[in-house]
Amino acid sequence: MTDIIIAIDGPAASGKSTTAARVARVLGYNHLNSGLLYRGITWAAMVEDWPSDETRFNRSLADLSLELERVGSGYRVLVDGVDPGVNLVSPATSARVSEVSARPEVRDRVLSLLRAEGGHGGVVCDGRDIGTVVFPTAELKIFLIASAEERGRRRLLDHGLEVSDEAVSQEAARLAARDAADSSRSASPLREAPDAVRVDTTEMDAGEVVRRIVSLARDRGATVG
Ligand code: CDP
C-alpha cells in the first residue's frame, strides 16, 4: 500500500475541509486542516490581547502551546491545552485570521507542525500554501475553486444562517476580502501550484468532488484503505 500526500488548496469556503475530510475517510488517511492551526493562534492572540509589535507578538507566540490531537481520522487543535471549539470559526476569528497568518513566525510554527504530522504520507492536508510551500513534493495537488456567490451561499448554510440574496452578497464580499489579503501577502500567499489539478466545484455536489479526487489519487498510486 502506498501512502501518498494529497494537498488541497484554494480560496475561502471553496469546500476544502469538507472534501479533504471525506477523501481521507475513503482512503483511510488522516485529514490535516491547516486553517484550524491559524485560527487557533488567532483566537489566542484575540483572547489574550497580544500586542501587535513584532517582538512582543513573537514572544507571546513562543510562549503558546499549540498541539494537534488525533480524533478519528481528523485532528483537534489544542491551544494552551484547550480546544477552542466553535470559537475557531466565529466571525470574529475569521475577520482577524488573515492578518495573523501573514506573519512569518506564525507560518513557521504551523509549517513545522504540519510537516511533523503529515510528512510520512497517508494524509490529506488542506489550506492555502500546502502544494506550494508545506508539501511541494506532494504526489497529488488539487486547487479547489467555486464562484464567489456559491462560496458565500455555502458558508451561510454551514453556519445555519438564512440564505437571502443580500446575505449571500455580504458573505461573498467578506470571503473576497480574506482571499485578497491571503493572495497579496509576501509570506506563502494563496497560490495555485503549477502542477495542481484545478477543480471548479460551482456546479458539482460534494460526492462528485470526492470521487474525482479519489480517482486522481488512485492514478497517483494511492490504494483505497
Ligand atoms: O475554511 P476557510 O476557507 O474559511 O478558511 P481556513 O482554511 O479555515 O483558513 C482560515 C485562514 O487561515 C485563511 O483565510 C488564511 O488567512 C489562513 N490560512 C493560511 O494562511 N494558510 C493555510 N495553509 C491555511 C489557512
Structure report:
With 225 residues, the chain is of the alpha/beta class. The protein has one domain (5-213): P-loop containing nucleotide triphosphate hydrolases (Rossmann fold), CATH 3.40.50. The chain is built from nine helices and seven strands. The strands form two sheets. The chain has a five-stranded parallel β-sheet, with helices on both faces. β3 (66-71) and β4 form a beta hairpin. The termini are close together. The mean pLDDT is 95. It binds cytidine-5'-diphosphate (CDP).
Topology overview:
Elements: E1 5-9, H1 16-27, E2 30-33, H2 34-47, H3 54-63, E3 66-71, E4 74-79, H4 91-101, H5 104-118, E5 123-127, H6 130-134, E6 140-145, H7 148-158, H8 165-184, E7 197-200, H9 206-219
Helix pairs in contact: 1-9, 2-4, 2-5, 4-8, 7-8
The chain binds cytidine-5'-diphosphate.
The site of cytidine-5'-diphosphate (CDP) has 16 residues, from helix 2, helix 4 and helix 8.
